[in-house]
Amino acid sequence: MLQYTIRRLLGMIPMLLLISFVVFTLAKMMPGDPFGGEIDPTRTDPKYIEEMREKLGYNDPIYVQYWRWITKFLQGDFGISTTHKMPASEIIMERIPNTLLLAVTSLVITYVFAFFMGMYAGRKPYTISDHVIAGYNYIALAVPSFVAAIVAIYFFSFKLNLFPYSGSVAIGLQPGTWEYYVSRLHHVALPALVLGLMSTASYTQFLRNDIIENSRKDYVRTARAKGVKESKIYNKHILRNSMIPLVTFLGFDLVTLVSGAVITETIFTYPGLGQLFLQSVATRDYAVVMSITMLLSIFTLLGNLIADLLYGIVDPRIRLE
Question: Where are the transmembrane segments (predicted)?
Fold first, then answer.
């Protein structure tokens, strides 16, 4: 297992270099730059624009710009945000806790609902309850997340006034107090429910089908022939084997939710990485755009590694060497 992990970590190095080149190239291919009048009408002085481009090295050859950016990135220097006039690393670090809170909360909601609905539908297949759960799954798969977010804001924020529709915490609360943490959970609840419940469908259907398949295998028939209680058969034998694939998804599920929260954060004006990414793309803030993209790529590779390691842990038949 240790040798496998080391090999995978070393194998990430050329992959990350290739990703960095693609990210840098795509960022530079975007039309315009942060100092053009088409981005900010107040910055129309040609002398100012040329001075800033020269100062930040935008007039240097592409390979020089790439080498300067990647070497600084590896040293932890993400560059200066041209929009916020501060280090990009500070801006990103301010937003990461919000995005991680949203992603973790959504992940918990996804797995809890998927576990109970999938287990119930698998134990009682082809019943009315199973068809109701399947209908919900089809709706969740068909409805885009941004549509569900708009509907949720309309009903639960404007009509019922149960949840706030923007921000991450109420204004004026002191960080570290009980009211502060309650407010943060209150603000993250609605976007997390939308993101989590819309991601539940595939896991629910997968767990249901796997439970039905495992219930027909020989070891289950043997257990029933020995007189083992049906609840013990499902909880100890069938469910344990059916949960193995879901556990392996945990590694990159968190990464998927972090990267997939871009639209959700924008609609809820939730100050996370997703909203920051879209704002930075609109203002051609290269330092922030490239840094966020690289960080998400690193998280994705690490998530895939964690998924592979979890698969070897939960299923002893798999040996990763």
Answer: 9-27, 100-121, 133-156, 188-207, 246-268, 288-314
CA distance 28 to 66: 10
3-state secondary structure of 43: coil
- Which has the closest alpha carbon to 148: 106, 107, 194? 194
CA atoms of 23 and 27, how far apart (whole Å): 6
- Structural domains in the chain? 2-88 (no CATH), 94-314 (1.10.3720.10)
The model's confidence at residue 38, banded by pLDDT at 50, 70 and 90, is: very low
Give Cα 11 distance to the centre of its chain.
23
The rounded distance, in Å, linking the Cα atoms of 112 and 89 is 34
Give the C-alpha separation, 82 to 40, whole Å: 12
Question: Which of 216-239 are b and which e, b meaning 16 or more Cβ less than 10 Å from the residue's Cβ?
Answer: eeeebeebeeeeeeeeebbeebbb
Stated as kind and residue range, the H or E segment containing 81 is: strand 80-81
Nearest alpha carbon to residue 117 among 102, 131, 103: 131
Structure tokens at 110: 């996804």
According to the model, what pLDDT value does residue 44 have?
60
Under 8 Å between Cβ of 278 and 29: no
What percentage of the chain exceeds 90 in pLDDT? 13
Query: What is the distance, to the nearest Å, from the Cα of residue 227 to the centroid of all Cα atoms in its chain?
Result: 45
pTM for the predicted model, two decimal places: 0.81
Span 179-192, pLDDT tens digits = 999 999 999 999 99
